[in-house]
Amino acid sequence: MAGKNQIQKLMAEVQDPSDFPEHSKSPGLRLLDSALRCTICSELYDGPVTLKCGHCFCSLCIRQSLAEKQECPACREEEVSEGHLRRNTVMEEAVTAWKACRPYILQVLKDVAQHDVASSRPSKKRRLDEDLYEQDVACSSPEGAKHPPAVKQTGSPHPDELVDCPVCSKRVKYKIINEHMDEGCTSEPEPDFSSKAQWENLLGSKSLLGKKKKKGKERALSEEKDDPLPKKSYDTLRDKAIKALLQEHDLSTTGSRQMLIARHQRWVSIYNANLDKAEKLRKSLPSLRRDLEQWETQQKNKTKRPVVDSDTYQIKQKSEFDKLVEAARPKKPSSAIQTTSGEMSAAPAHVPRSRTISPSLAEKAIVVDDFEDERMEN
Amino acid sequence: MASISSRRLAKELMEIKNDGCPVGIDLVKADDFSTWWFTIEVMGESLYPNEKFTLQFRFDQQYPISSPAVQFVVTDGREAPVHPHVYSNGHLIALILSCRYVHPFLGNEWSPVLSVVAVCVTLQSMLASCKEKQRPVDNDRYIKHAPENPKKASFPLNA
Hints:
The structure holds two protein chains of two kinds.
Chain A: H1 3-13, H2 29-35, E1 48-50, E2 56-58, H3 59-68, E3 86-87, H4 89-115, H5 120-140, E4 162-164, E5 171-173, H6 177-182, H7 189-203, H8 206-209, H9 214-222, H10 239-248, H11 257-275, H12 285-308, H13 310-316, H14 318-328, H15 331-341, H16 346-353, H17 360-377
Antiparallel strand pairs in A: 1-2, 1-3, 4-5
Helix pairs in contact in A: 3-11, 4-5, 10-11, 11-12, 12-17, 13-14, 15-16
Chain B: H1 4-19, E1 25-29, E2 35-40, E3 53-58, E4 69-72, H2 116-128, H3 139-145
Antiparallel strand pairs in B: 1-2, 2-3, 3-4
Domain UBC core (chain B): 4-159
Keywords (chain B): Ubl conjugation pathway
InterPro entries (chain B): Ub_conjugating_enzyme (IPR050113), UBC (IPR000608), UBQ-conjugating_enzyme/RWD (IPR016135)
């Protein structure tokens, strides 16, 4: 098993707040690093969103969590749903900045520790900490979210990049933004066209994935860029309809109905979570598809393993099975005796009494099911 | 790239290695991302002086969205504590289906912001607050038919 090596390797590679020295040596740095991390995945926020109660999570994390249970994982406030999620753009900026300076700060700390010059150390660190502290305060204050998203930090955008027109707030290519405004924001079709072109750009690598169905793709292309995908009630949909949904987004349509549903659900989550990120940080659709495929193989690895060696599993577990079979057999008469002794005839007695005395039949069923579940899920 | 569950577990392990476990809780083994063992003992006045129990955690790919499967280890001479919420096969009464127990701050269910150590602490305090050493009333019935994984158990009485 790769277990031990894998765990060592991963532990060496993951970053966490303990990369920074403890509080007494570098006040606040650890706290800052953990404040910028999602409490579900413990990574730095990826597309942070905030719930009604103010708690913040990665968009994808909280979407998964809400699918399990509609409550805030941190404070258990109830009746929250994906509709309550609000992008936390300020947090996103803070995380982007932190990601950029994290390695630098670690390097500085290392240098400081090495030189250990008593006089220069406190002052240098103090300055850093103060800057960071301010940032931390800014992003954790509840009013934070009201600040307008800051302008791009560096240089001007690429000429082909879409920018918001400051007058009509339509999306216009940066290179023609001046003409656009000069003409009184009349150059209508341009933004639409260019967004389509951008989609084509993004989807250009379709040969990579070897997809079919022109029609579905065109529909996907014409979709409004920022619209989240609606959730579907799969129970009302036939397999065919679910496959059509998947095809619309160029996703695989193989597998059982259950897999189709799981795949589409996951896609909706990934897709919508991606929209919660700043445009700059969003992933392209092909890379979202790769994420989905990766997720699916991860699921499969886990589910497949026991199935693969089901024969050896059965041989190995034979004694256990036999024991269970043996345990199950003599049970019937004895439980019948138990219930009949409860002054009623055996058959109907099972129903009302099953809650208090051994509901043996039902439980046997559970035990049997369990082995199947085990094979499917583990 | 490793899965979210592995990365999250790696971080929890880091934290344990760096900061250590709370008093009375020790990591026994965590060689992979599927099964971890801890020992817990109750500190101070309690019904379990000098008793040490082993807790087993099992994780699936959905961790931390889905709860870990938690139970006491009852093999190789290890025993489950005698407690109204602990079956003699090591399963916990209240860790029903999706594994839940009363957490001092978070109510009674698993939440993805909880961690392995948080569960250990919760169980430690469950033992510490025990008033009477006894097995659950339906112990015999339960252990006869209990599934191997406590998360798959159904509890008609306690659900």
